[in-house]
Each structure stands twice: as structure tokens, then as C-alpha cells.
Fold these 2 entries.
Entry 1:
Amino acid sequence: MSNPPLQEFWAGVKALLPMLIGVMPFGAIYGVLALTTGLHPAAALAMSIILFAGSAQFLFCQLLGAGAPTPVIVAEIGLLNLRHALYSATLAPHTTHLPKRWKWALAYLLTDEAFAAISRHPIDDDTHPHRHWFYLGAGLALWSGWQLSTAAGVLLGARLPTDWPLDFALPLTFIAIVVPLIRTRALLAAALVAGGMALLTASLPFKLGLLLAALTGMAAGWRVAGMAR
Amino acid sequence: MSIWLTIVACGLITFAIRLSFIAVEGKLTIPRWFRALLPFVPVATLTALIVPDLLMPQGALWLSWSNPRLVAGVAAIGIAAATRSVLWTLIGGFAILALSSGINS
């Protein structure tokens, strides 16, 4: 009952494709934003490869535009991307048998979208010894879409229509990822507190409110879960 | 020059986070309180990103049904809950954004 690697790989690509509809417009917007922030086109493209995290690249540009110092940028990106630790922890038990190069490749390709595609697919390693090919397919599909769309944004720049609300693709994608995750009262509490705090702290400099909101949301969820235990 | 250093530093920290549990699984015990906190990290972080996009599209709080992004966002939450589909959430969200922008302009 084991699928050959190639079949798993394409299944992963297919599972990721709907995500690209939300991700690619956002990639193009990132490309435009990076240039208007004053980033060199080479740096804008390199960031898509080195960082490979849409919301973090957006935040990077916003902070750079606001004149934030390097330590602030690095700390905020680190905290914003802390959620990937959950994805790493979820995937970890299914990667223990893999060689190091596979682990590094899958870790590099681990994003919100790839993880959402993976976690909607039943993980059952006993019957699927080639499941890591599925992860690779999903990860590489998103990677290619992201690189292509950010390059399009950088190349087309000002020629992209600015009156289209393409930036709305990111909150919509995140809504589609987050809503199915909220399955308990504790998770709902985390979302409500994080959202409320994000509004209350929106005026703080360097987007620090975003981090404050995320941290209080996590604490609230943890607390509510603790009360239920 | 410093911009490249910043990009590389951000990339390294992000990669380290993504690799963290994958690298240490079976070799290190992760504290239970940290594991208990993990499920809340994506929900809290992503919601903190989403909510200002819907309620403060121009930087100030706009709590009104004439705010097209709020209307489309609330509808998208309903669509996501009902369908669990990224595709339908995007199609529905953009369609309602277009409709409510048209009505209010």
C-alpha cells in the first residue's frame, strides 16, 4: 500500500496549489513594497530566498521604512516566526528516520501554507513510508510560487495596478488557516485576546504592538487551557 | 552592507526556529510547559496580524458595516469555518470585498 515517491510529491504539490492563489498576489505586493522601501532589487529577491516568510518579509520592509535598528528588526522577525516552532514540533516525529539533508530541506520549506496543506492531509507514516516526499512537494510548490511572484513584483514594480486590493489576499489566507485551527475554548481565547490587544497596541512604534498582542494571546490561551486541566 | 547582515540574521533565526524540533526530536526532552504553549502560537500570532487589517485598514479604528474589509473579513471567517477551504475563503472574501466596496462608494 506504499505510494511511490513521485506520486507523493505530486500529491503534495496539488495540496498546496489553492494556497498559491492567496500567496502569489501577496508576493508581488511584497516585491513592490520592498523597492518603495528602498531595498535594492537584489536584496529584495535574496530576502525571498534567505528568509522565505511572507508576513515576516512584509514586516521587515515596514520596520526598515520606519527606521528601526537591526536588533529590533531581528528580534521582531524572530518572535513573529516563533509559530514555526509548533510546525517543527508537529512534523518532528515524522522525520526522525530521515537523513540530515532531508531534515534541513524540510525545515527550510516549513511555512504557514505548507504546514496547513500538510496538516490537512492525514499523517500516517506506517502506511506511507514516502510521506516526506509529500512535504517536499508542498514546500517546493510554495517556494516556487513565492519566488516567481516576488520576482514579478520586483520586475513590474510600479506597473502593477495599485487600485486593486491585492494586499487583502494575506489576511484572507491567514483567516483560512486560523479558523479551522480554533477547536477549543482555549484557542478561541488566544485568538480573541491577541486580536483585541493588536487593536489596543496598534499605535506603538516599530509594530511592537503586534508582538505584545501575540504574546498576550498565547498567555491567555495557555491560562484558559490550564484552568480546564 | 548592514541591510544584508540584517536579512541574513533574520533568515538564520527563522531557519533555526523551523529546524528546532525537527533537529532535536528523540535527542532532547522539551519542557512540558513549552509544549503546552506551542498550540497557541500560530493562532495568537496570525490573529494579531489579521485583526488590524480588518478593523484598521487606514490606520484608525473603523468599526462599521461600511468598512468593506471588516464585512469581507467577517464573511471570510464564516466561509472558512463552513468550508475549511482556502480557495473558497479567498474567492468569497474577495467577492464580498468587491460587492461591499461597490455599495459604499
Entry 2:
Amino acid sequence: MNFLDLIWLIPLFPLAGAAVQLAIGRRLPKSAISFISPGAVGISLLMSIGAVVQLAGLERRSHEVRLFEWLPLIKADMGFLLDPLSSVMILVVSGVGFIIHVYATGYMAHEHGPNHGGFYRFFGYMNLFVFFMLMLVLANNYALLFVGWEGVGLCSYLLIGFYFHKKSAGDAGNKAFIVNRIGDAGFILGMFMLFQLTGSLRFVDVNEVLRSGRFAVELGTFGALSLCALCLFIGATGKSAQIPLFVWLPDAMEGPTPVSALIHAATMVTAGVYMVARSNALYALTPETSHVVAAVGAATAILAASIGLVQNDIKRVLAYSTVSQLGYMFLAAGVGAYWVAIFHLYTHAFFKALLFLGAGSVIHALGGEQDMRKMGGIKDKVPVTFRTMFVASLAIAGIPGLAGFFSKDEILWQAWSSPLGSKALWMVGFATAAMTAFYMWRLMFMTFYGTPRMDEHTLHHVHESPKSMTVPLVILAAGSVVAGWIGMPKVFGENGFMQALEHWRAPVFAQGHAAAHEAASHAHHDTTMEWVLMGLSIGVALGGIFIAKALFFGGGNIELRTGGPLYPVLLNKWYVDEIYNFLFVKGLTINGGGAMARFDANVVDGGVNGTAWMTRMVSRISMWYDTWIVDGLVNLSAFTVRALSFPVRFFQTGYLQTYALVFVMGILAIFGYYWSR
Amino acid sequence: MLAPITTAHYLVLSAALLLIGTVGILLRRNAVVVMMSIELILNAVNVNLIAFSRHLDQVNGQIFAIFVICVAVAEAAVGLGILIALFRNKETVLIDEIDLLKW
Amino acid sequence: MPASFMPSAQELMRFAPEMLLTLAGTLIMLLEPFTESGNKSRLAWLALGALLAALGLTAVSAADPGPAFSNMLLIDEFGTFFRFLVLAVGVLTILISTHYLRSGGHESGEFYALLLFSIVGQCIMATANELIMLFIGLEVSSIASYVLAGYLRDDKRNNESALKYFLLGSFATAFLLYGIAWTYGITGTTDLSLIRSALLNPASRPNEVLTAAASAFLFVGLAFKVSAAPFQMWTPDVYQGAPAPVTAFFSAGPKAAAFAMFLRIVLTGFEPLKKEWEPLLWVSALATMIIGNFAALRQTNVKRLLAYSSISHAGYVLVALTTHSGPGAAAAMFYLAAYCFMNVGAFAIITHVARRDERYVEIADLAGLGTRQPLMAGLLTVFLLSLTGIPLTAGFFGKFYIFKVALDQGFIWLAILGLLNSALAAYYYLRVIVVMYMEPAPEGEGELPAPAAGVLAAAVGSAIATFFLGLFPSSLLDFADKARRIFN
């Protein structure tokens, strides 16, 4: 089977799944939905694996399928590109996506929304999301990528607001929507500038033009290319929750936990990193913008990690952790180590999805409780969840041998050694690593150890989650252990397996970034330094864990305020929301007077209320659609089937002579045909 | 004096046998008669083959006819066997009473 | 007697698989009275061994292709392809039948002997290059099949199936013969390559009316054997009434062989008439697909459902045939191989679920199979998905190649209508899957025993073949592509 020419089918399976579920989902039993939804993603996964295996066999690991010309004006095809970069992405999206879908069948099983339609809508949107995400990573041009980009945003919006009866959920959906609009404006601007500059939006063409030498490296200057790269990066900060647009992601945790795991940890939020890596030829020419990327990444990493130190909501800790880890990825991309950014993206997908799913399992076990101050002492009651989360926490803290260690360490090493990097960036990354280890283990100790702090009733009902939830946890835990092994640093010895990822990347970044190559060769002269830095980061990880243990192990001082004088600042997330509120909302109100006040009252509040309203409308429309269209169609189709089937069976009377008669009529018809010729 | 019998005459005879056989299959209720009607068609084939064989001055057609006769005999034997098995169970050889399987 | 009339050792070697099977069949008949009723399965082993040996001999004879017996048989890659296919179907059929027959107390040597004889006939159909030989192959296969259809003498459904099959089958054969006789009359030969040159030769170009009559009768006979509309009426009744393993066999072996015969006649001997045959095939292909699919929509009996489904699949193959092209032939060959495995596999599971006396052959009887026997349900799901044409399975590529060839050769409407049809077919295949997984098992039904080893082996083997062809279609397609070169 030639999977390579069929890569355009990969996104279509989830689309078909979504279509079936959204169209006739209410008629289907839950068991059917639980089968179709992961099944569709599973088929995509199999086809992705097939395609990637075949891609590995190609001389030049890049395969493009162009179906038809889609937007002639900007020369954009409906085309798909499979190369090492997109193959890592489709494996992550369909692989982790599949696991999370399976998990969600267990997690959502007891979902009793305000209408029973909730279950199928949830899975329909999830499949739709996977479709858009696969489009995003398989697109062969920026325009099609943007379609996926907007599509995942839409699905994220619908899923954040899934519990639309909760006002906070509606607000969160709205916030995500507005913040992302700002980012998207940047992306669109950048895209059009790119088209003006290079005359194409096809990745292959764009890269060729940029690498042809027509454009000089804008070293020390800030020209058109730099501006274009900056605009694209603004788009990335919106989608990937970086400073200044990161505020939406923590609020997005109002959505169901599988959504947080799939969209807000493993896949959608990494789209910005993917896009920057995809544009590596552009960023290679614009070192000034690269500096901005690295700085923003580093700043986001440490800012989010510091907020994570004091949060008490288990999902919020993870949300800030995600923002922080995304900052790491941009740090890597900013210093020219695009491949390392993708490597971290890939390992992060495993352990962060696992952490979210594990948190979901805990919340499930505690009957919906998310506050860590009311947890504790449940490790023996939920052994699988505990053990898998233990592994993930080691992985994210950077304990050697586990996935997170290799990728994080490589990022730190690149920040230190790359020509674009600096000691300051390394310091920030290093400090973030310490905080990461601390807040993760604070979470672990508060959640699982010590004495139970929930009420008797809840404690009595703590139970391990069903198989459909724990098996995905175990698979992801295995992934969190082994996923990093294909990208080991060269100081551990060189062979085909240990640097598989590095060899694999070749065609995308082949002539890509001279600086990164230089850095790589330079790096090998300095193995002592690499060992030292590695030792330091291991030390700081262990240190973070031990401090967390010292402070939180017993569970006695659970109200402990880490961060000293900074505690209120951290707890209030550096007042970023308040500052934005003041600058963009209140500031306008003061200056603009009454008009702005009305704008605020009507438009902004209206928008917030509007989200809830719109989600309600969508569900009402879908109810109406179900009652009239689907039921109607089902009845109609039963009638149609009867009506269609009857005439062709009319002669099937069981009488042999009827058959012989039809037979003879057939002969006469053939004679008639010859007669009329 | 009678006109000589040409190949065309044989072909007309064969066509007539074919027609009679076909009508017999369509109209007769008794399975045995239906089988006999099929035999008629096979004999129409034989008449054809031998007429052509003579017309072309070849022996192939006659050999073919012998094959057809052999096969027809084998077929009849099997057919009667099937019919007897059916009669044992259903006590009928009328094919319009055999309509268990339909639609 | 001239020496050339004696078959040479080389020719005998090319015919060896058929001879071996005939001998084995006769031997089984001879041994039958001397075999204790408890030991009848030894005869099944004998038949199985003979089939495997015949497979080996086919491989040997494929190494030395060429004509045999004064050009009456032509052992080429095309023939070899279909020989392999019908022999493989034979192996699977024996695996399915032994337990079925034993549990009903019907196991006896004749069954296996008849099966072998029928396969001999099909092998001859696959390799015959001459109308008399084709006719003999067809009759050897058919007569044995008539008996097999009514093998359970005490079952009324079997009786009726056999009688209908026999009467309509002989009727169709008689018409086919009539067509052959006319062909002989107008071309003076029964050899397909000579027929072709006679039809091409403008000097001896025969009377158009007579040619039309000859081809019309031939078409009728061939269409009946592949159950193409409007000569498909017998198929549902016969398939439903016959014992389940026999139905598995009917739907695969004789059909594949009949298509081999059809392909050879259409693409060699009667290739000069392709302009006249094309509209006939076009209409017949479309009607076959429509009738098969639409009638299947409302079936409640699984065997009958699969019978209609097999009609629709014949329609797809006819689409490939309509193109009158080498690639079309290759696509048809691939499709038939894929179809044989997935269909026999599906019938293997049906045989298992039907149990003694075939009491459970309704779709409703499959309810809850997903929980009762997940393996069996999973295998049946694989076959049904493949019949639907889902990627990763053989059925997908079968359809893919056929419709691709149709588009390449300019049969755009036929391809579109065919695609619509295959989309419609998903309805009734998925319905079975839904029943298996979504509906609870009916209460008060007897315990479903574990599958017999033979059934399991046949189903797993078919599933492996289905996946193999779905994942590595080029392995078989390359061979089919080589085989179809004889048609240029």
C-alpha cells in the first residue's frame, strides 16, 4: 500500500468521524460513539505510521501530494507535505490523540450534561479538532496551514465552552477567542508579507527562495524579513500562549480534562512552535527576530514557572507548566536549534498529556475536586494513576533516563553554546528547571501523600478509574520513559538509534541553519562543559524535588506560602490580567468616557455573555437538527431503503419459472440491442 | 422433385427446437418435463453442430456433438437424482410449489 | 496414428494438477466404503493433501508455460493465477466444511471427491484456450456443484437450492452451447486465437446477423455463470439454500473460474467485437451493481445478504471487464483474488455461527457476537470492512484499481455510478457490524461453542490474506499485470 500518496486521507478519517457523530450522533448509542471516535483517529494513526515508515525508505525524505489548485490568486494548492518535521507532528497528533480519545471514552462516560447530546457533541468536536490539527501539520503551504490553524482554534473554543451552563467556561472560551484573534492578525500580516517577498506560500518554494541567497542575513538590522518573521511569531505567541498573549491558556482549563490534555497541552498549543520551525529558513535570515523569540521564550518559561509555584488548582499548575515548557521550546527555536524545539515538543506531548490525564483521573476519583488543598493521601487508592504520574513528574523534572531529561538538557546546552544563545538565557532556563522540579513535586506530594484532607464522604468514594482510562495512562507512561532515547546527546556515544531523530531531521533543516550546524560542531569540542552543565541541571532537578519533599511531604503545612514576599504577586499571576484589564479595558473607559463605558458594558460583556449564548444556541440548533432532520432522515431512509429495494426484488419470487422468464427477457433485450444497431 | 435439404434447413430446425425447449421451460410445471425441454435445447445444439460440421466439411463439430451428448447424459443423471431427493422430502415435482427461498 | 497425437511428457506435466486432483477424487470415492464412519476426516486430509500437492504442481507447471494437447489448453500466467486462486479456495472450503459436516452427521467421502472434481473443472476453465474445452471444464465444475448444492439430502432448502441451480444452470449452459455452435459455424473453428483471426480477417468476415446471434448467446451463458444482471436471479436462492461451506465455495471458486473464462473470451477470441460488446457489458455491469446492492439493503438472512453482495461484487468486476483493456484485466484479477479471500472468510464465520442444521443464519442471530466471541466478531468485521472497501484491506485496493482503470479508459460515468454504489453498500455491511457489537445477545439461545480449528484456520488465513493484499497490493498486482500481457 502506497501510504505516501494517500497522506491526504489521513485527516479525512477524523473528519468523517466528526461528520457521522455530529450528523446522527444522537441516534447512536454511547458505545457506538466510543467506538467510532477513537476508531477514526486510530485509522489515521495506522496510516500515519505506514506513511512515515515508507518515508524513511525514500532517498530524499520529503513527499508532496498536490490534489488540486485551491486559491489560484496566491498560488495555494490543496496539497500535503510529508517530511521529517510533519511526520513527527502527525505521529504525535494521531498517536497521543488516539490515546486521549480512548481515555475520554472512560472519562466522559458519566457525563450528564443539561442534554444527553453532550456526549456525542464532545466526541464530534474532538474528531473535528484532530482533523484540523492534521490539516495544519500536513499542509504544504501557509494558507492551508492557516485553515487548520483557525479550525483548531474554533474547536478549542467549542470545547472550552463545552460546559456552557458554567459562566466561567463561557468567559474562558471568549477570552481564548479574543486573545487568539490578536495573534491571528499577526499571522495573516506575516503571511501576506511573506507572499510579497517570496512570491509563494508553498513551504518548499518559500524555503528555496529564502535559501537561494537572494536575501542577505539581516544581521544587526531590522528589515522586511525581520518584520515578517516577527509578525509570524506574534501569531505563534497567540496560539502557543507566550508573553504577552499567554493569559488565555490557564483559563482554558475550564474545559473537560481530556480537552486540556489533547488541545491545551499536547497538540494545538504547540502549533506555534511547529510554525516557527517550519519557517526556519526565514528565521535563519533574521537573527534579530530570533533574539526576540528566544527572549520571549525564556521570559515566558520563568514567569509561568514562578506562577506555577503557588497555584492550588491541580489543573492550573499543569496549565502554567505547559506555558513554561512552551517557553522552553521557543527558547530553543530562538537560538536556532529548531530541531531541539521539536524534540522537546515531542517528549512534552507524552508526559504532559499523561500529567493532565492523570490529573483528570484524580479529579474523577475525588468526584470533581480540583483544589490540591483538599486532596492528599490517596496514592494507595489510585495506584495506577499514582505510579504513572510519578513517572511523568520525574520526566518533566529532568531526571536522567526519562524523556524530559534529554530534550530539556539539549535545550539548555543549545542556549549555552549556540552562537545565538547566551549565558543569560541559560541561566533563565536553568532557574526554570529548578522551579519546574519544585512545583511538579509539590503537586505530587500535595495530591498523593500525607493524610487525606477531603471530607469523609469523598474519601469513602475514592476509586481507581476504569481500564479505558488507566491503560492510556500506562501507555503514555511508557512513552514518557522511552520517547527521549532517540535523541540522546552525543556525549553518551554515537550510534544510529541514539541520534535517530537527529539523522531523521536532515532534509528539512539540511541547508537550513548554518549557525546551528556550527554550534553542533563547536559543541563537540566542549564535551567537558556539556557534562558539567548536565550535572548541574540534574543537581538542580533533584534539589527542587527535595525542597518540595521537605516542605510538603507530610502535608502538614499545606497552606505554606512559598515565594516569600513575592507570594501574593505569584498567586495573582503577576497581576497580568489586572494590568491588561487596566490598560486595555479600563484605560479606554477613562479616556473615551461614556462611549467606552458603553462599549465595555455592551460589547465586552456582551461578548462574554455571548459565548455562553452562542454555545447554547449551537446546542439548541443541534437539538432541533436532531429532532427534525436526523429523525426525519432516519425515517425517510428506512422508507427509501424499502422503496429502493422493492423493485429490484420484485421478480425474486422464488418461482423458478419467473427466473427463467427474466432470463429469456434478458436474451430478448440483447437481441433487441443487436437489432437496433 | 423435392428441393435438396440445405444447411439452412437444419438451422431452422435447430432454431425451432430451441424455441420449443424455451417455451417448455417457461410453461410446464412438471420438473421432469422442464428437464426434457432442456434436453431439447441441447439437441438443437447438436443439430446445429452436425449441420455446420457437414457444411464446413470438418469432423470437429461431430466430435463436439458427441461430447455434448455425453455431458447431457451426465447432467440428466444428476438432475434426476436431485429431483428424487426433493420428491422424498416434499412429495412434489411441480416447480411452482417449490418456493421456500425467495425475495 | 501420428506421433503428434500422443501428448508429450511436457504437456502432461502442464496438465498435472488436474490429473492429480482427478485421481485423488477417484481414490476418495474408492476408499469411502472402506472407511469407518468415525474416520471420514481422513478423507478430508487426503483431499487437503491433494489440493496442496496440486498447488505445488501448479507452481511447477508455471515454470514451463505453453500450450498442451494441440492448443486446447494454454498454461500461461493468466491460467496459473486462477488455478492458484481456485485451489486456495478449495483448501479453505475443506477447512470450513469438515466440522460442519461432522456435527450434522453428514461427513462422507463424496463431498470431498465432488469438491475436487469441481475444482478440476475450474482449473480447466482457467486454462482452456478452446471452446469445447471451456464447455467441458464448465460442465465438470457445474455438475459437481449441482450435487454439492443439495448435499444435505434431508434438508428442504438444500433440495430446492440444488433443483433451481440445476435447472437454471443447465438452461444457461444450453444457451452457451448454442452460442458456441454458432461461433463454430461462422468461423469454422473453436480455437480462440483462430476465432480472433477469423473475425479480424475482412475477407472471411462473417455475416453480421449470425455473429450477433452467436455473441448474444455466448454472452447470456457467460453472464449467467458470473451472475451478472439480468441473469443473476438464481444466485440468492441457491446461495441461501446450499450448505454454508458450499455457499462459501460457490461464491468464490466457480465465480472466479467463470470470470477467467469470461475474460479470456472477451479479451482474446471476441476482442474484435469489442465495440458491440461494450454497451452490453456497460449496462450489465451497472445493473448488476444496482440490483445487488439495492436488494441487499433489506435482507435479514446473512447468507442471502452475502449472496446479493456477491452479485454486486460481480458488477464491480464487470466494470473492469467493460474497459476491454489489459489493465482492466489485471484489476479484475486482483479484485477477484481479494474478493475470494474476504468472502470465503466471511462465510467461514457464518458457518461457525449457523451451527448444526443452520438454525442461526439471520442477521439478528449475530447480535452480541462482539462480546460472546470477540475474535470471531473481529474477523467478521475485518471481512465486512474489506467488502465495504475500507483502506488497509484488500477490498479497498480492489475497488481502487477497478475504478481507476475505468476512469483512465474514459468510462467516467460508470466509475462514478460504481463509486456511488459501493458507498451505498456500506449501509448493509455496517448494519451487520452494528448488530454484532451494539445489540445484546438474544436470550434463551443455545450456547455458541468455540470455533472448530478448521474454521478458525480458514478465517485467520483469509484475514491474513485480506490484510496482506491490503497492505502490499503490488505483490499480487505485479503478477496480475504480467499475466494480463497475453491480452495485447
